[in-house]
């Protein structure tokens, strides 16, 4: 099997429109969560989220393309262009058949769907946009990135709820390993803070209701957590066959060495007791990376700030890593970004790679009252400096999906 390296990354989040802006804010322990600005949420049970605010898609797309695509695609294109720029990669006619795209989203063009429902009810069926279907379909993001970059290799969308872009990266990795592509642009994008989205998740009692203190609402592993916070964003990575990357003199940032994907077959929204599915995902990732548990330095946890997730993930880490779990550094960057659903796995993969590059592990902010059931080292409230050679990133999704990715310092 071929080795796969990371040569470029891009990110758009509630903390910044570039990778550098987001990383700096994460290291400072800042929160991107605040009152909802995209619609009037005054009558909603939950009135705050981690929105991507004041984003200018015209830096990355032509006006016609912007009008004909949903904002989740705008974010995917932006993060992709950032990643390609960092990689110094142009997809030429010669490379195009060997360059692919895999971008996931949990709900796709949710904003366009919501807007066109309003048009249908207020103005009638003749006024519904003819572009609605290509705007809302989940594969719109990888299709548009393919169109704009010329990539003509394997191009598809992954979807597994909040594990989506973990799967997208893992399957892109497998695509390169088996020789089907030399380059894959892979990641996830989500922009689902809409009236319908907020109302449905709030009515599920899944969201925190700390409307009076939104920046402290996402508090993974804290005994006083009361739900997750909706977030938006996109994360993209350029993955390359090592031989191809060396041949073109690419900047090698890190190596993707392990991937595990499993299902719970237990419940549509709750994780399996003890995190049985996540345990197997982490074990498979370690096995595929040919690494021992004690070689992992840092885990970017799924860490959603919900009662079930945080305790279950803690149990899974302890089951997988044994006594070494108590020596591991673990943190949840959802405490600052909110939960970006289908984009979470890719955004957190980028953060995991950055922890290797900079020797900094972002904190879990708002961890003020540790839950006795969550008794690991979660890097509370302040970033930690330390050498990171191996970082593992977990993702879990409604439906019982689990993914684990392992990145390693390139040698």
UniProtKB/TrEMBL annotation:
Record's keyword annotation contains Lipid metabolism: yes
InterPro entries found in the cross-reference section: 3-oxoacyl-ACP_synth-2 (IPR017568), Beta-ketoacyl_synthase (IPR000794), Ketoacyl_synth_AS (IPR018201), Ketoacyl_synth_C (IPR014031), Ketoacyl_synth_N (IPR014030), PKS_Beta-ketoAc_synthase_dom (IPR020841), Thiolase-like (IPR016039)
Reactions catalysed: a fatty acyl-[ACP] + malonyl-[ACP] + H(+) = a 3-oxoacyl-[ACP] + holo-[ACP] + CO2; (9Z)-hexadecenoyl-[ACP] + malonyl-[ACP] + H(+) = 3-oxo-(11Z)-octadecenoyl-[ACP] + holo-[ACP] + CO2
Domain of life: Bacteria
Keyword Acyltransferase: yes
Sorted UniProt keywords: Acyltransferase, Fatty acid biosynthesis, Fatty acid metabolism, Lipid biosynthesis, Lipid metabolism, Transferase
A GO cellular-component term linked to this record: cytosol
Sequence ranges assigned to domain Ketosynthase family 3 (KS3) in this UniProt record: 1-409
Pathway participation: Lipid metabolism; fatty acid biosynthesis
Record's signal peptide: none
Class of enzymatic activity (EC top level): transferase
Enzyme Commission number: 2.3.1.179
SUPFAM superfamilies: Thiolase-like (SSF53901)
Listed GO MF terms: 3-oxoacyl-[acyl-carrier-protein] synthase activity
UniProt-listed NCBIfam families: fabF, PRK07314.1
Described function: Involved in the type II fatty acid elongation cycle. Catalyzes the elongation of a wide range of acyl-ACP by the addition of two carbons from malonyl-ACP to an acyl acceptor. Can efficiently catalyze the conversion of palmitoleoyl-ACP (cis-hexadec-9-enoyl-ACP) to cis-vaccenoyl-ACP (cis-octadec-11-enoyl-ACP), an essential step in the thermal regulation of fatty acid composition.
Protein name: 3-oxoacyl-[acyl-carrier-protein] synthase 2
Source organism: Ktedonobacter racemifer DSM 44963
Taxonomic placement: Bacteria, Bacillati, Chloroflexota, Ktedonobacteria, Ktedonobacterales
């Amino acid at each position: 099997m071929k080795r796969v390296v990371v040569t470029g990354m891009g990110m758009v989040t509630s903390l910044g429109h570039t990778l550098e802006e987001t990383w700096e804010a994460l290291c400072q322990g800042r929160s991107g969560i605040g009152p909802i600005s995209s619609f009037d949420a005054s009558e909603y049970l939950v009135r705050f989220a981690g929105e991507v605010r004041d984003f200018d898609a015209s830096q990355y797309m032509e006006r016609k393309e912007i009008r004909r695509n949903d904002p989740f695609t705008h974010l995917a294109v932006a993060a992709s262009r950032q990643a390609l720029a960092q990689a110094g990669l142009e997809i030429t006619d010669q490379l195009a058949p060997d360059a692919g795209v895999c971008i996931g989203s949990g709900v796709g063009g949710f904003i366009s769907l919501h807007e066109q429902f309003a048009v249908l009810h207020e103005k009638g069926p003749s006024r519904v946009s003819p572009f609605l279907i290509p705007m809302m379909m989940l594969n719109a993001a990888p299709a548009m990135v393919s169109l704009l970059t010329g990539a003509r290799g394997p191009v598809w969308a992954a979807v597994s709820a909040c594990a989506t872009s973990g799967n997208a990266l893992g399957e892109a990795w497998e695509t390169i390993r088996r020789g089907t592509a030399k380059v894959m642009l892979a990641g996830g994008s989500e922009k689902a803070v809409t009236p319908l989205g907020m109302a449905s998740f709030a009515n599920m009692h899944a969201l925190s209701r700390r409307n009076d203190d939104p920046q402290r609402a996402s508090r993974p592993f804290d005994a006083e957590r009361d739900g997750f916070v909706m977030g938006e964003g996109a994360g993209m990575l350029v993955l390359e066959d090592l031989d191809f990357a060396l041949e073109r003199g690419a900047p090698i940032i890190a190596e993707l060495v392990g991937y595990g994907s499993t299902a719970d077959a237990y419940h549509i929204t709750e994780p399996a007791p003890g995190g049985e599915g996540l345990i197997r995902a982490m074990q498979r990732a370690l096995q595929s990376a040919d690494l021992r548990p004690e070689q992992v330095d840092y885990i970017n946890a799924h860490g959603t700030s919900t009662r079930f997730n945080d305790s279950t993930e803690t149990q899974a880490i302890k089951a997988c890593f044994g006594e070494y779990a108590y020596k591991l550094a673990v943190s949840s960057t959802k405490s600052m970004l909110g939960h970006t659903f289908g984009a979470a796995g890719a955004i957190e993969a980028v953060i995991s790679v950055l922890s290797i590059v900079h020797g900094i592990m972002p904190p879990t902010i708002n961890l003020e009252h540790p839950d006795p059931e969550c008794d690991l080292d979660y890097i509370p409230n302040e970033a930690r400096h330390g050498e990171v050679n191996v970082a593992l990133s977990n993702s879990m999704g409604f439906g019982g999906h689990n993914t684990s990715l392992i990145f390693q310092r390139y040698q």
